[in-house]
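chain below, 153 aa
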Amino acid sequence: MYQRLIPLFLLFFMSTLAIANDNIPENVRTAFEQMFPDVHKQDVFWEVRKDAIVATFNEEGGLKKAFFAEDGEWLETRIRLYTSQLPRAVYRYLEKTHRHSDITFLAKVLHPGGYFYRIESETFEEVVIEFLDRTGALMDTQQIRFTEGLELY
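prediction:
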């Protein structure tokens, strides 16, 4: 029974990916192609979010997410990093402040004004997103409680 459902599920999932990639405004696609000319169209997964249109792709051996406004304006690009790729000052901050949390995402975030670093971590109650400059100084923190956005019955 379940073996028959798996191919149907895969077909449905693949068709939704194709639909998501087809609903991207042409000016956003053009802006992406100008910024990342070496990335093949079929290697990009597009996602429409409430605050941006996001292209997820691999470039130069790393996972990247480019964020665009609906008019094609580039907002930012997040480049996934490993701890070994962090600048020494950011790594020291990470070692000092995150002994009791799980790090779920590290990134260098490029934006029109420059760049910063993003650390996402989880505790039992929340996701914490921290923004640091290149000297390891904390610029801002966002906290998302696990119950936010969930319908509790």
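Residues 56 and 65 are 4 Å apart (CA to CA). Residues 2-22 form the longest helix (21 residues).
thats it, cya
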